[in-house]
Design a protein that fits this description.
Elements lengths: L4 H17 L10 H22 L12 H13 L6 H19 L3 H12 L4 H8 L3 H27 L5
Helix pairs in contact: 1-2, 2-6, 4-7, 5-7, 6-7
Length: 165
Amino acid sequence: MTGNKHDAEDIVSETLIKAIDNIEKFRGESAFGTWLYSIALNQSRAFLAKRKQADLQEIEAYLPGKQGEDMHQNRSIQLFDWQDPHSQLEASELKEIIQQAIDLLPIKFKEVFLLRYYEELSIKEIAKMTNESIASIKSRVLRAKLAVRDNLSKRFEERYGQKMS
């Protein structure tokens, strides 16, 4: 949901600290994992709200030569991967296109989509952690899936000049 690993790691840390500080509030009405996901979801929402207020980049992004160093490090890691470079490039491009389609979703659809398909949580678990009805979550997941599909269809149609079925 954050779009980068560093922010996601910060949210995980904050989630664990909050869970430890509030462990006495866990009532056991749901699974511990569901309770923990609820905290993480709330931390993510708070983070996104803060980022929306002040959309600043990290200082490292402004340092000269930093991007080149990261690219060099990533290349050296990939040199030892014996997969076909063409396949890797296609897979990388496809992941990027899918991520862009997901990023276009409104937050209320993005969060349920990620929880359902990336975290592989059940509809019932998502409903419990978001305090929404199962029907509402089913509807949001379906609408998110359709929006991603439509976006991808348009992208591939533009790219390959034919309608995807």
